[in-house]
Give the backbone structure.
Amino acid sequence: MNFRIIAYIVGWVCNFQAAFMMLPLLTAGIYREKDFSAFLLVMLVCLVVGVPLTRKKPKNKVFYIKDGCVAVALSWLALCIFGSIPFVVSGCIPHPIDALFETVSGFTTTGSSILSDVEVLPHCILIWRSFTHWIGGMGVLVFLLSLLPLAGGYHMNLMKAESPGPSVSKLVPKVQSTAKILYTIYFGMTLIQLALLLIGRVPLFDSLCITFGTAGTGGFGIVNDSLGSYSTYCQVVTTIFMILFGVNFSAYYLILTKKFRQAFKYEEVRYYFGIIAVAIVIIALNTAHLFRNLLTAFQQAAFQVGSIITTTGFSSTDFNQWPALSKTVLVLLMFVGACAGSTGGGIKVSRILILCKAAKKEFQLYLHPNAVKKIKMDDKVITHDILRSTNIYISLYLMIFAASVLLIAIDNFDLITNFMAVTATLNNIGPGFEIVGPMGNFSSFSYLSKCVLIFDMLAGRLEIFPLLLLFFKGTWKKF
Amino acid sequence: MHIIIVGCGKVGRTLAEQLQEEETDLTLIDMDADVINDLTEDIDAMGIVGNGASINTLMEAGVQTADILIAVTASDELNLLCCLIAQKTGHCQTIARVRNPIYSKEIGFIKERLGLSMIMNPELAAAREISRLLRFPAAIKIDPFSKGRVELLKFKVLPEFGLDGMSVSQITDKYRCDILFAAIESKDTLTIPGGDHLVHNGDFVSIIAAPKNTATFFKKIGLKTHQVRNTLIIGGGTISYYLAKTLSDLKINVKIIEKDKERCEELSDMLPEATIICGDGTERSLLMEEGLATVESFVTLTNMDEENIFLSLSAKKLTNAKLVAKVNRLPYKDVIDDLDLGSVIYPKYITSDSILRYVRAMQNTIGSNVETLYHVLDNQAEALEFIIRDNSPVVGIPLAELNLKSNLLVCCLTRKGTVRIPRGQDTLQIGDNVVIVTTSKGLRDIRDILA
C-alpha cells in the first residue's frame, strides 16, 4: 500500500474542499449572514490538513487498484466529515451525526434530510447543501484527476474506484483528458439548465440550488415542499434535465464528436428511455383521477419518474398519496437507477440488462445443454469477469440491504418505512414512503440507524467495494 | 558392491559420478543410446541400452548379483515397476524416485507392500529444505543431523556483525555460545578451521550446534532469527505445492504466482489457505503489485533456471527479503554461487545426496556406519554422522590425544539425547552420535578419522 500517495490525494481533496467553500462564503457575503465565520473556519481547517500533505509530491507514484479504492474511500470520508463541520459550527444542525448524515446525503447525491424545516436555514447553508450534490455527482476524484497531473497510467485505478457502473471506459486515451471532458459536459449542461431556469424567472439563488440538485441527481430542496411550489415551466425543465443527467455521459461525448448513430445505439440508454416511457404512461393513467387533466397527470408522472429513476429525489407532489400501483412502479424504478457513467445511483440499467441477458442465456442452456453462447451488449461480448462482478455486486447489495433493514428495525417503525429508508439511501434517492416520504424526513430515526444509513449512502455512491475494502483485513496487510 | 542405476537423467548422472568414487561396480541402464555412450566415456561404469523394466535388460545388467537397484527415470510408474521386477528376479535392495503428489500421500503403503528400501521424492525434499531456510532466514543452508537435534548451518559474514579479522577462538570466547565453526569458505577455498583461523567479511561460515544455540549466537552478533511471516513463490510446480502446504501449516502467509490458468485453479483447490495469482511472475509491475517490496521471503521455483536466477537478482535490488532460488542445472554451480543470490536449492543434489547416504549406510554390512551425509560447498567437503557401535580404537581416548586426519573436525556429540560440542578432553563412547566434517572423502567408519 502506497500511503504517501494516498495521503497526497486525500490532501488535495481537502484543498479542493477549501476551494469549494468559496461559494457558500460568497453567498454569506452577499446576504450578509453571520455564518460566514463557520465556513471560514472549515476552510482554514481543510487547508491546515491539506497543504502539508500536498506540499511534497511523492516520488513513488505506483498505484494499484486497492490503493485507488482506499484513496477514494478515505477522500470521501474526509470530504463528508469536513463538509459537515459548517452545519455544526453555525448551529443549524447541532448534533454531529445529524450534520454528517446531511453532508453524506449531499455528497452521495442522495438528498435525504433530517431537517423538518429547511426554510429557516441561512442562504449560505442552503447553497452549501445543494453544492455538495454538484461536487459529489461527477465525483470529486474525477475532478481532481482533471486538474491534477498525477502522471502515469495509474490514476485509471482512481477513476475505476469512483465511477459508477460495471465497467469504466475511457473516452480518449488519456485519463486526465477523459476527466476533463466529463467535467466539461457536466459543467456545460449545468449552465444550460441554469440559463433555462433563469429565463423562466426563477430567482438566481433558487435556480442555482435546483440546478445543483438536478445535475448531481441529488435532490435537496430549499423549500419544504421540494419543487411543488415552483412553476410548471420550472418543473418541466427540471424533469428534462434530471432525465438527461441520468444518461451515460459517454453518449454525450459521442454526440459532441458528431457520432450520432453510435450515441443512439447505446443499448443501455435506449432501455433507460424505454423504461422511463413505460413508467410514465402507467403512472399517468393510474393517477389521472388525482389531477385536473390528463396532461397534468403526465407532467407530474414524468417529473416523478424522472426524479426517481435518476435517483434525484425531487418531488413536485406528495406521491406518498398515490395509488399502490404507481407507488410500486416508483419503488421498482428506485432499484433500477440511472445509466452507468452518469451522475445517478441505484443498481444501474446496464447491470439489470446484463443480469436479464445472463438469465436468458441460462434458459437457453436448459434447451441446449452443450450450447456455447456469449452474452453481448452494444455488440461487445460481456466477459465472464464483468458478469461475475455484476452478480457479486447484486448479492452484496442485497446482503447490505437486508442487514441495514434489520438494524433499522430496532427503532420499531413500520415495515414500509424501514424498507423505504434503506432503499432511498442505498440507492441514493432521497425520499421514500410513509415517514420518510417526500413530505417527511429522517429526523425521527435513532443515531444508530442514522449511522447505518450514512454507511448505506456511501456504499451506494461508491458502489460498495471501495468502502467495504476499508474494513477488509487484507487491505491493510503489508503483504 | 554392485549397483544398477536405471535412468540416466540429471539425477542418474550425478549419482553415477558420486558412486564411482566409492568402491562400487556400476551398471547404467537407459533407453537412449547416446546418453549411455556419453556417460560411459566420463564414468567408469558399464552401460546398457534398454528398458529398465524388462527382465532381459535387467538380467543383462546382472540384477541377480546386484546389491542395489536405483530407479530414477522420469516416470514414477516405470521406476516402481523396475524395482518390483528387480526384486522378483534378484535379491537386491531397491530405491525408486516417485514424485507424483498423489503417490506421495501413499508412500508408506507403497514402500512397505512393494518391499522397496527407499522412496525418494526430490520435490518434497527440496520443499522441506526451503521451508527449513524460511524458518531460519539468516542461514543460506541448513542441514539437520541427529533427527534435527543438531544443525549444520551456513551463513555469510557481513560487516555489521563486527567479526572481521577475529579468530575463531576469539569469537567463541567473546560470545560464549556452544557452537563450533565447522567450515569456512572464502574465495572458493574451504578450510576446516582451527582456533587461530581468521574470519573475514564475505566469508561463508558453516557452524554446527543445537538449534537454540545457533539462535542465541545469531542474536548476539545481530542477525535476525525469527521465521518469515510471509512468502512470495514464483511458479506453481510440485515443489511450490509441497512448500506452500508445509508453510501454511506453519501459519506462514503464502502467495503463489503461476502463469497457467488451469494449474492456478488446481492449486487453489489443493491449497485453500494460499493466495494464488494467475500471471507472469517475471513481470515486474505484477510483482510490485503483489507486494515484492514488503515481502519477507521470495522463492523462485519456475522451470527455467535463468528465470529463477534473474528474478532473484532483481529482487535483491528491490527488497530485503530472504531469497531462495531453485536451480536444476548443476554444471554452472560455481558461476551461480558467485552471484550471491541468497540461498540456492539444487533438487537434483538433494536427491543424489540422500540416495548416496543410503548406499553408504548399506555398506554398513561391510564396515561403514554413516548415518547422514551432506556435501558442504559442492564436493569439497563432507559432513557425516556416525553412530559408534562397537569397540573401535577411537573409544575412550580424549580427542586431543587421538591422531586425527588433517582437515577433519569432530564437531558434535550427541550422548543420550543431549547435544554438546566436544572439546579436547572429551572422549567418544559406544552409542554416541558423532558429526564429522572433513575434506577427505569416502569415510566409511568412525575409525577412518584416524590418520
Notes: Chain B has four domains: 2-120, 138-221, 230-320, 369-449.
